[in-house]
Fold this sequence. Notes:
This protein has one helix at residues 2-94.
Amino acid sequence: MTSVMVGAEWAQVIRWMEEGHTVFESAQRLLHECDQLQEATEAAQMECARLQSECEQLRAEVSRLTAEGERAHKERAETAQWFTTMLNQAASRLRFEHPPS
Length: 101
């Protein structure tokens, strides 16, 4: 009975050795895929950092342009007010009274 078990165990060892090559190939493929995924992750992280920096720059530009637009709007309102005042003063000076007939 021991020789039968040894034969069965020997067959199992042979099968493991035959399957071992496939297992090692699969492990090697998984390690290669892991390396590729790590490289892709690093590239994505660098791209994310670049985009965050660009986003910060764009936010600063939007803030600057908003402030510039508000300044221009205020200047335009002040200019319109000044122009209205000047026209009213000019109109009041140009009014003629008709001499009594």
